[in-house]
Amino acid sequence: MQNIELTDKNFLTSDLIYTCSDIDSNNKIYIIDKLNYLLAELIDLSLTTKQAHWNIRGANFIGIHKMLDNCFNLIIKYQDIIAERVVQLNGIALGTIDSVYNKTSLKHYPCNINNIQNHLKELSRRYNIVSTNNRKIINDIKDVVTADILIDSSRALDQCLWLIESNIEKNL
Ligand SMILES: [Fe+2]
């Protein structure tokens, strides 16, 4: 039996997985790599959204606490869809903590804040980065079905960004 080595650089298609998909194999590897990169950022983003959901304090707590859970649920929905697209392309979805740590471009989230406005500003920067990266991948890949999935995830990210930014007071 062939061994499959998993490293952070090895995004892998696997000969062990049978597929009839006729997408060119080089194109598949390229798409799998991009999707695993986006998957890592979405997992990072979902964890930071929960971090804020748990720790915020201040005016309008309950509205923002619930809003952040709505964003979390949207993000994990697309984590799942994107991870399953990787596997449909004969790849291995990389969702472990070490894969996320190695692939994400997001900065460490500060754990020493609790003010709602500070959390919202930190989150908005990260949602904007992931949304921008998601859009770049749509333009880079040559597979309309995957692109269609990423247009949906882009829409969800932009909706969350709008919800978060709408609660940021410009002068605070
Ligand atoms: Fe909760």
UniProtKB/TrEMBL annotation:
Single GO term (MF): ferric iron binding
CDD domains referenced in this protein's UniProt entry, alphabetically: DPS
Ranges for domain Ferritin/DPS: 32-169
Entries under InterPro entries matching the protein: DPS_DNA-bd, Ferritin-like, Ferritin-like_SF, Ferritin_DPS_dom
SUPFAM superfamilies documented for this protein: Ferritin-like
Xref: PANTHER family: DNA PROTECTION DURING STARVATION PROTEIN, GENERAL STRESS PROTEIN 20U
Family stated for the protein in its record: Belongs to the Dps family.
Official protein name in the record: DNA starvation/stationary phase protection protein Dps
Species assigned in the record: Candidatus Pantoea edessiphila
